[in-house]
Amino acid sequence: MRFALATALFLSLLPPAGAVVTTNYSAAGMTVSGTICLDAATGAVLSETQADWPGHPASVTKLMTFLLVMEDIRDKKTSLGARVIIGREPAREIGSRIGLMAKENFSLEELIYALMLHSANDAAVALAVDREGTVPAFVARMNKRAAELGMNRSHFVTPNGMTQGRGPHDDSTARDLGKLCVALCKMPEALRFTGTKSYTFRRPFQPTDLTNHNHLLSLYPGCDGLKTGWTVAANASIATTAKEGNRRVIAVVLGCNSPGGSKAAQRLRDKLAADLMTDGFAKLAAKPAPVPKPVGPPAPTPAAPKKPIIVKKEPSFWEWLSDLFSF
């Protein structure tokens, strides 16, 4: 079934009748900054192409904002029900936004849904200010956490990836973003948000229906995350994950571009991510199953068998006498 759906997704990318059909990405003019596929359980690399080549993650940057908020919830520093009062900064954000206005207030949970489904830049800023007081302070925390995760070639300048022109831009690599995704996939509560396809953002007299930008949630079996991104400066990127049985893989495609324009680049990005995950599952399935570790205290080592004790009977008088004269 997975192959059939992947094939259907590929067929949707084919040019109209009469055009030259090719399945070679480079021949079609597509370029990619880097890709990687990981085993989510161990972080082991299953495949990679230019995984350390720098690129701009665009809205995939929001995964770091999301991670910090989820870690604060885990550490009891805040809660999903905590109310966030919107200041002036979110209202000034451009690009994808939910239309937050100063003095409104929403729960942390509502803002997370706006962040992860609608990719709302204003929601990212509202969360940043709520957690650290100012955007620069939150960005400093993003970079500190990135260093802790070993994301040595990443540098963030925004909580949402919304940069323009010559920048400065958020910088990362496919490998670094993979490390961020491994951390998120260890949090089941995080996957509840990233795997949600739709959500109604409720505000007085103006409810807004949000739809997740990640089309692989519907097209790829077992997919439950993570985040898409696109800007003119960054091109199309995606960090995605799927589960099959007890196996989970993560795929990252960074900086996908196509001469067909932004929509074509996004479709090719999704197709490439799906192919990476399918290949990753095949490689995991080919590995021998791990030997389960015993549960409970180790069994006692059986004692070595004791050497039998042979009891010799006392010789009789006639046996003693016979031995005395034996030569």
Q: Could you characterize the architecture of this molecule?
A:
Helices cover 36% and strands 17% of the residues. It has a single domain (2-10, 27-286), classed as DD-peptidase/beta-lactamase superfamily (Beta-lactamase). The chain has 327 residues and is α+β, with helices and mostly antiparallel strands. The protein contains 11 helices and 9 strands. It has helices spanning 2-11, 62-74, 88-91, 108-116, 121-132, 135-148, 174-185, 188-194, 216-219, 262-286, 317-324, and strands spanning 34-39, 45-49, 83-85, 105-107, 198-201, 208-211, 223-231, 235-244, 247-256. It starts with a helix and ends with a helix. Mean pLDDT is 85; it is low at 3-27, 307-313 and 320-327. It is globular and about 60 Å long. Strand 1 (34-39) and strand 2 (45-49) form a beta hairpin. Strands 2-1-9-8-7 form a 5-stranded antiparallel beta sheet, with helices on both faces. Helix 1 (2-11) runs antiparallel to helix 10, helix 4 (108-116) packs across helix 5 and helix 5 (121-132) packs across helix 6.
